Amino acid sequence: MDIPTIIKGLLLGIWYEFIYILPYIVLGVLLEATIRTLKWHVKIRHALTHFGGLAIILATLLGTISPLCACATLPLVISLLLAGLPLAPAMALLVTSPLMSPAGYTLLNWELGPAWANTVLFCTIALGLFAGYLTHLLRPYGFSEEVIFRQQMPEGNFHDPDYPVEELRCDCGKQLSHRVDRCTHNKFYVFLAKFWEGTLKIGKFALLGITVEVIALQFIPSEWISALLEGTGVLPIFALTFATIPLHMPQVTAAAMLYGFVSPEFGEGIHLSKGAGVALLIGGPVTALPVMALLIAMFRKRVLALYLTICVFGTLALALGYRWLPFSF
Fold first, then answer.
1. Model-level pTM?
2. Less CB within 10 Å around the terminal CB: N or C of the chain?
């Protein structure tokens, strides 16, 4: 085994694939930087507590355009709960935010095609509405805001460096874009700073997905991968759904990994089956371990049980349902 040759091949494969998707990373990050600079998602977030029954729909739509990942969304959700937002729209936001974003949609469109980008968008909205309205129905049975926390949350601002709950303390003030805003108050400079932050974040997740895919193609027999991703039965759906539960796989990472498998230019040209694709693109990002750890620390066990039930069975329902549909989006 020529190890230097193998390493060189792996690095070249990662480099070529990353350069190929780089233009769409840039486009997606530009969209997210614009949203963050104009604070559209913040304005919608502030309106959530005033929309009553429409808050679930609004929270679901906010989750689809939010550039925040699951780990950044949970502290936001807790702050909204403390501000009076019911758990139902908060759960809808928590479920949808890691599944879709402007950068995520752009990359999905480029890597897997418009059909898959629209499929994930539809599944995101469907899962968010399901999460919100199921939680709303369960509100009288131990899921009201007064009884879901393990202990009373202290008052204060999460952005305060002295906030007593370390897990929720936000360090966004240290971010480059916030420092630029404090120093210049210039929107264009703030936009450039947010663009740089987004490039680092999205590029890191995309690079991780490409790396996993290139290594997998090098060392895992291609017929094993094909059996999972091309499989027409229900076993690949269940296998992928439950296998991704313990993995921290952001959506950009999942999409970049799949791209290498299905791309005829760089990968094996695997035909991604409908059920397996949904299981990986929805099940992977929505069950992030850091989120579950924080749910255990902050909330009663039933909240985590509800979250996992929504994520796992919602993913299975979407994957199996889409598999049986006679058409694609």
1. 0.79
2. N
